[in-house]
Design brief:
The chain has 351 residues and is α/β, with parallel strands linked by helices. The chain contains 14 helices and nine strands. The protein has one domain: TIM Barrel, CATH 3.20.20. The structure holds S-adenosylmethionine (SAM). The site of S-adenosylmethionine has 19 residues, from loops.
């Protein structure tokens, strides 16, 4: 099924039934055209506005450590990258980021980092307690990788509200080509089910255009996400990092990333969907285009300016200008220019 009208019908069916079969996803993704994309985005905006109006939620991203025990082939902070300048913020420094963020109007803080053993459970629990004590009206999101169910439960009991853990790719053999043997798609997916069962607002996601990715893999991603039914989905283009085994691989495109955002909005109409930093990095107005394709969240950087460049997951990662929390007002203007407003709200999932 590759006829243009047939593909348009698939989009209509996705809009009403919120699901497609694997071969239909594959046909739609590989047969996409600029006209189909425009049609998809118009329906995605309809759904986005039905559930969220023209509001865009902001999250303050604190990249608190770039130490990582993992060795993902695509990632600039992988253990084997001896050129990475490692840093780790102290609890006081993280709380100071929250203080700045609060005064700038942020009501969600996202603590993201590599899998850093120095931030063990005891230390994480103490940190979560302090943040929730000082900012009881704020939501706290963690994005610190794969942990045991018990650890996830401890963080949740300490007050963490949300957890982001991208599944990266739902296809097991594709996953193996992106990761060393010590990591598995099965384990990653188990973590996601644990997070959901514990009661976190849970986010998953994948890279678009990662090496060896085919339309069939993206189809599997959509099926996995549909089954997991997460509260949030973070996707962004793969961008190579010069000190990784994938230094010479091509980057994903903003065009395909935007198409996938539109599909996600129709599949899970109420999902929280960020226009990510990677999308903003690959294309100057990527965030605006992301919102116009159905996204409804942006996550400016709240980390101290002197460490930002060291959280280098891929080359040329944005960390200044509208990407930084201090420039909230510039971001606000950009959103206003396309008819959207940034709001100061926790922005919980309506599910
Ligand atoms: N350690 C945590 C984890 O594993 O979920 C959080 C940090 S990890 C660096 C955050 C995300 O960055 C990953 O889930 C991955 O999708 C993304 N990422 C890493 N390297 C990337 C690259 N080269 N291009 C685009 N995204 C990348």
């Amino acid at each position: 099924m590759t006829d243009k009208n047939d593909l348009r019908q698939l989009i209509d069916r996705l809009h009403t039934e919120h699901t497609l079969a694997k071969d239909e996803w594959t046909a739609l993704i590989s047969g996409r055209t600029p006209e189909l994309s425009e049609y998809l985005f118009s329906l995605a905006r309809k759904e986005q506005k039905r559930h969220y109006g023209t509001t865009v939620y902001i999250r303050g991203l604190i990249e608190f450590t770039n130490y990582c025990k993992n060795d993902c082939f695509y990632c600039g902070i992988r253990r084997s990258n001896i050129h990475a300048r490692r840093y780790r913020l102290s609890e006081e420094e993280i709380l100071s980021c929250c203080r700045t963020g609060y005064s700038l109007g942020f009501r969600t803080f996202v603590l993201q980092g590599g899998e850093d053993g120095s931030y063990n459970d005891e230390r994480m629990v103490r940190l979560i307690n302090s943040i929730k004590e000082q900012y009881p009206d704020c939501a706290l999101t963690l994005s610190i990788g794969e942990k045991s169910r018990e650890s996830y439960q401890r963080y949740f009991d300490a007050g963490a509200d949300r957890y982001l853990l991208r599944h990266e790719t739902a296809d097991f053999s594709h996953y193996e080509r992106l990761h060393p043997a010590s990591l598995s798609a099965k384990k990653r997916q188990e973590c996601l089910w644990n997070l959901k069962e514990i009661g976190y607002q849970t986010g998953t996601g994948f890279m678009v255009g990662s090496p060896f990715q085919k339309a069939e893999h993206l189809a599997e991603d959509m099926l996995f996400i549909r089954k997991l039914n997460p509260h949030m989905v973070g996707i962004g283009p793969f961008i190579p990092h010069h000190d990784t085994p994938f230094a010479n691989k091509s980057a994903g495109t903003s065009e395909l990333t935007l198409f996938m955002l539109g599909l996600l909005r129709l599949m899970l109409p109420q999902v929280l969907l960020p226009a990510t930093t990677a999308l903003g990095t690959i294309s100057g107005n990527g965030r605006e285009l992301g919102i116009l394709a159905g996204a409804n969240v942006v996550m400016p950087n709240l980390s101290p300016t002197d460490v930002r460049k060291n959280y280098s997951l891929y080359d040329n990662k944005l960390c200044t200008g509208e990407e930084s929390a201090e420039c909230r007002h510039r971001l606000e203007k950009r959103m206003e220019s396309i008819g959207y407003q940034i709001v100061t709200a926790r922005g919980d999932s309506p599910l």
